[in-house]
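Just curious: can you write whichever protein you like plus the matching C-alpha cells?

***
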Amino acid sequence: MMKQLISTFFTTTMLYGLVHMSIFSNLIETGDNRELTKKKEVLHWSNDSNYDDKSRKALIISTAPRTIKHVVALWSELECFTTDVDYVIISGPLWSEPILQQIVHLAKDSIPAFATTQLLSQVFVNDRYDVGLWCDALEWMNQSGDLANMHQVGLLNDSVFALREYSDILSALEIHNASMSSLSYSFNRPEGTGSDMFWVESIWRGFDRPGLQSFMDYSCRPATDPMFCSNRWWGKKGCIVENFERNLVRQYPRDNVVGMFSSDVPKDMLTRKHNFPNWVRHPPYWQKLVDEEGFPVSKVNWPDMIESIDDERLKQCSKYLDRSTLDGIDFSVAVKAI
C-alpha cells in the first residue's frame, strides 16, 4: 500500500511539473488581437550582423487608467521616462481602449520625443494584473516582429508620477553587466532581513535579452496558475508581490541584478505614525529620497506624497499636457482589477 501511495505521489508530481513547464505562452493574433491561443513561447531576436541592435530599446507601460490621476501619471512617464528608448507600447485592459487611443493621439501631437520615438497602445484581457499586461504586450511584440531588434526592454507601471527625467534603468544593465535592473531594491522580506533577502520592486525594471527570456519563462503564466493567488480571499495583493516581485529575483544570479535606490526605511525614521518599512508608504523617507538622492517618482495614491494633479512638483513632467484635453475622458467604463 505504501509503495502504491509513493508511486502515485511521484506520478502526480511529474505530471504537475510537466504542466508547470508548459505554461509559458504567447498570444496568437486572431482578428482584433483579443482571442488568445496559448503555445510555448520562444523570443525571436534578430541575428543580422549589419543591424546595430544595441541602439534599440523599448519601454512597455502597463496601465489601468481608472482615474484622472492615473492618466496624468501615465502622461508624466511618457514625458520623462522615454528619453532613451526607441519604442513605447502602452498595454492596458480592454475597457481602456478609447482612453489610451486619446492619450496616444495627444502625446504624438504634443510631446517632441514622439516625433522620432514610436508610440502605440494595445489592449488585452486584464486577468493577470501588471504582469499579465507586460506579458501580453511582450508576446504581441514577439509575434509582430517588433521585439526582434530590441537589445533592452523596460517594464513600467502607472502607479507612480514621474518627477523628473530619468533614464538610468536601462543604462544600468550595461554599466553593471546585469540582466535585470530596477528603480528600487530591498533587503527586507516578511521572513527576515539581510543580504540573502535581497529583491527588487516591479514599479520599473529593465532587462537585457537573456534577462527578458528569464522574466517571461517565470512570469508569463495563464490566469489559472496558482501563483496568481485566485483562491485567496484576503491578502491577494501581498501574495502576488511575493510570487512575482520577491521571488522573481531568485531566477537570476545575485550579481546579475541591480537596483538604483534603497526601498528600506532607515530604522531611525520608523515611528508610530510612519511605521511601514518601505518608501511606498513612508512619506518622510520618500521625501528624503527625492531631496537627497533625486528619486524620480512619487506614488499616485498615497497620502502626504503628491495628492493633486495640480501639484507644482508635477510640472516638470507635464509641460506638454493641456489638462483641458482630458475633460472628456469617460472613466465610468473603468474596472478595478485588485
Remarks:
- The CA atoms of residues 234 and 338 lie 11 Å apart.
